[in-house]
Amino acid sequence: MLRKQLLMIKQSEKVIYFWMSLAMVTWALAWTNAKIVNEYLSFYNLIFLRFFLGFVSLLPFVLFLKNKFPKFRDLKYIIIPSILFLIYNIAFFKGTHYGLAGKGGILVTTLNPLVTVIIMTIINKNILKQEMIGVLVGVIGGIIIMNLHNDGIKGLLDPGNIYFIICALTWGIMTVTINYAQKIINPYIFICICYLFTMFLSLPLIDTENLLNANLDFRFYLNFFFVSMGAMSFGTSVYMYYTPILGPSRASIFIFSVPFLAIGLANFFLQEPFTVNIIIGGILSLLAIYIVNRK
């Protein structure tokens, strides 16, 4: 009986690992998808459509779970994250347009956890030695990824680097605000309503002429499906569902795979180069996250 139970647990863990791995692939692939769909529509049209599809695809799941919707007064916890979602996505699409998708994938996904640590340190007014070391290593990793040690300030002013830094900053702030908000509002309902709010925030920015006259083909639809429903709906939902089961420490192991999956997929689909500075900087940034999270 015990042996049978252990076998069932082992099989269920394999299922969890499969879905979590697939979710990480969708997150990593989103950087390549964004680079491709940028060729077809304006940044703001892409943002509107991305959040429209994200909301529509999550809504049936939220209704199926029959979770309690937040009270009107609790909607204030959704406004700031929704604004940050909009800012992040503007920087996300512009960054992948002007810069390398793989570089953005490795820079943003490794820097934003460190931004979160800095913000939480300021809020809690409690600075640990290992956190200071981790953040310092992360900053050095970021400098190497952006090649600032060779390009100096000129490299910092590169449009791709600027937008990727904005992505990391906004996502780090967003992580903190979401952490507080989800203590009050169910996580799935929270994300679904955030997508709806962000969709409405982006509505005044859309270019209807560009939208109506766009020559969209299968290549666009395939990549847009993955950057919206794949990464936002599937990837986020799977991660949110299985993280409480695995625990934050085990779940974070999967996130460590995203940076190098992102650069690997960009190299495969876009023929973007593997440069030494991106690899070294990425390894240092991952080391920084490990140092910060080490118990």
Please give a structural write-up.
It is a single chain. The chain has one domain (27-293). The protein is mainly α. The chain is globular and about 45 Å long. Helix 3 (76-98) packs across helix 9 and helix 4 crosses helix 8 (159-181). 83% of the residues lie in helices and 0% in strands. It has helices at residues 2-37, 43-65, 76-98, 101-124, 129-145, 148-151, 153-156, 159-181, 187-202, 208-213, 218-246, 248-255, 258-270, 276-293. It is built from 14 helices and no strands.
Shape: globular
User: Span between N and C termini?
Assistant: 36 Å
Mind describing the biggest β-sheet?
Answer: none
**Count of helical stretches:** 14
Helicity level: over 70%
